[in-house]
Amino acid sequence: MHRQRAVAVAALAGAFAVASALLSLPAAAATFTPPGGCQLQVTVQNRGCTVSQYYVCSADPEGYQRSAIFGRDGLYHLSTIDAETRWIESQSPQTGLMDRLVEEAESHASFSRLLETGRDDFDFWTESNSGERLRHQGHDVLTGESVEIGGQTLERTEFELTTTAESGEVLIERRGNQFISREMGRFYGGVERTTDWTGARRETNDSPVTFAFPGEAGFGLTTPQYDCDQLMTQIPLERAAS
């Protein structure tokens, strides 16, 4: 997280949420320029026809990271995580849907716990600007496998995540593999299987392919490069703990 989540799958994936008057980019911009006081750190091209921009802002608490995700039609998701990779807030610019982490939790996601023990169990809530409260329960597990992708050493994870409404109704169940970077302190997408409340199932792959750092080709590029010849990209369901 990347994550539609309202009363339809399209709403559910864009939802771990943040108010972002910070970005005023045109959707079709060729390159990404972060807001004032912020610095773009890396551009990641992903499978599934998306490209992610990761940046930090001097006004944020230490350890915070922000991201802007672009698809074939431009910017569609903004998010903020903290040093523990908790999904602090995010926004869908296309729908205006915003969500924010509820501070009180049975067990917040913890990147440090995952690195120290090889497993992180979490159980927390988010609340949207429409008043919807969602509960997210699941776990991340390190598989012990390391891979090199785009010149970066990443570790593979397995995860399960169940999102339920305040009523207790199960809205989305997700499971699959992702990747983490200890150096950059965050999760990246992978192959996952999703079932929603209608019984619909799908499998997606938004694994990273290339990493571009300042001065390198592709840095800041907002045009996705991989899998865009396939059917229209489905917005990836953002990980609560990524």
Structure description:
- This protein has 242 residues and is mainly β.
- The protein has helices at residues 9-13, 111-117; strands at 38-46, 50-57, 65-71, 74-81, 87-91, 98-101, 119-128, 133-149, 152-165, 170-181, 186-188, 191-196, 201-205, 208-212.
- It contains 2 helices and 14 strands; from the N terminus they run αββββββαββββββββ.
- The longest helix has 7 residues, at 111-117.
- The termini are close together.
Largest sheet: 14 strands, antiparallel
Mean pLDDT: 86
Order of helices and strands: HEEEEEEHEEEEEEEE
The percent of residues in helical segments reads: under 10%
Radius of gyration, in angstroms, nearest whole number: 16 Å
Number of strands: 14
What is the helix tally? 2
Q: What proportion strand? A: over 45%
Shape: globular
- Looking at the chains present, what oligomeric state does this protein adopt? single chain
pLDDT < 50 runs, ≥5 residues: 1-29, 231-242
